[in-house]
Amino acid sequence: MYKILTVDDEEMIRKLIRKYAEFEGHEVTEAADGMQAVQLCREKEFDIIIMDIMMPELDGFSACREIRKTSSTPIIMLSARGEEYDKINGFELGVDDYVVKPFSPKELMLRIDAVLKRTHASSTAAARPNEVVEIGGLKADITARLVYVDGKRVDMSPKEYDLFFYMLKNRNIALSREKLITEVWGYDFYGDDRTLDTHIKLLRKSLGEYSRLIVTLRGVGYRFESK
Hints:
alpha/beta
């Protein structure tokens, strides 16, 4: 059973999510705006947060920014808009997934499962012996999920870390788009190829001059070069 916080100023949306989530045995708490969501996250712990972007009092992005100051609870954003800017902004704030309205409640439940499975897998990996990779001034502590560029720590979104570490572990190997999506997002990923491209853009931005190590293979995918 998951403890789900659903945040949306539209009561019908909240009730729809509650109906399907409770049918699957999950516990649901509702918030009508970002201010309520932030306060609830200070008072209780949730397994995952489903949050709309456009809300009164405090929008979803601002609420996410406040929640991320004290919590790493997975967040799935809901929005009636599907512009790339919105997705990039959300992913930079640490959003785990992005669903555009109108959406299928069944698909949303599958996405919740997928996000929480990935989160659990990342937590399990943290128990392994330290694995550190250094390429010039680029240093990655895979176990501790820390990245340094020329001695300065770089903060990434959760999915940026997952994508970067997977490419790093498979450096100098051509990775197809399908392979990256399957391994990083999971077999039950319901997004599209643009999600991968958006994260590659974010990752290149985070790596600065070392972004050159991520090579685009036209018609295939990407390769991380360490030579």
